[in-house]
Request: fold
Amino acid sequence: MATMLNGAAIMDGALLLIAANESCPQPQTSEHLAAVEIMRLQHIIILQNKVDLIQENVAINQHEAIRKFIQGTVADNAPVVPISAQLKYNIDVVCEYIVKKIPIPERNFISPPNMIVIRSFDVNKPGFEVDEIRGGVAGGSILRGVLKVNQYIEVRPGIVVKDESGNIKCTPIYSRIVSLYAEQNELQFAVPGGLIGVGTTMDPTLTRADRLVGQVLGEVGSLPEVFVELEVNFFLLRRLLGVRTKGSEKQGKVSKLAKGEILMLNIGSMSTGAKVIAVRNDLAKLQLTSPVCTSRGEKIALSRRVEKHWRLIGWGTIQAGTTLDVPPSPI
Reply:
């Protein structure tokens, strides 16, 4: 679920895959549809997969069950396309729907660049000579603005440490872009939309094994503040999603937030733990286990530990919070 929410933070549309040889909805299907609504994805195409494994009347009955399931949700008017991924049946129709039903959103090329990091790598192989070593690579999607080769950039929160008193401190990472890639194409400029690989002069140790996931990359001095506590206006789901039930048994109700409990938050592509330190009506104060670079008004997803799994229980909007003092830029 955390992976799905992180990915949804940079998507313009979604394909909801439903197996034709299973009853609808499966617990995970309900949970993912709720997550799509939380992440404000408006453009959805539903794929009824594995139609080659069932008879026509079963496919028609399941199609009606899917229509009933999505009624009143963000996917209410979404097309339901019967496909067989294995036999490549109707894949051309899916491509046509993607082109015609999911519009290209308006992009902002004027604002300072801001990119959510969803992957980071060390591209150096063991045994490289010192002069062959290349800087770390960050992968993600640009939300606004344009990145250019040789541009100086900042990554927040950057390097996070605790001082002797146990207080969290963060030091942004400053670097320079040495290459930009989309797929296999080398670029001089990168614009919003699609996935971009950004080659930098960063120490590759900092980017190894997705260490920068959840951080924000952009123009020096233009990134949002770094929060360690958040005040959120939240809304809880009525019932738990993603938990299997027996027979006609109903999903368990979502209990209220309790002071002192630990939740998981998804903010952009960042997943972090949070301790509830105060609750009043639909407002909660949350202490984060890791600092997050975000803005007031951003949407967040709330998950709770249920039967050894993190389950989506609601969402919220950031109203205010406690920020960290970030050292001034040396550039």
In short: The first strand starts at residue 14 and ends at 19. The radius of gyration is 22 Å.
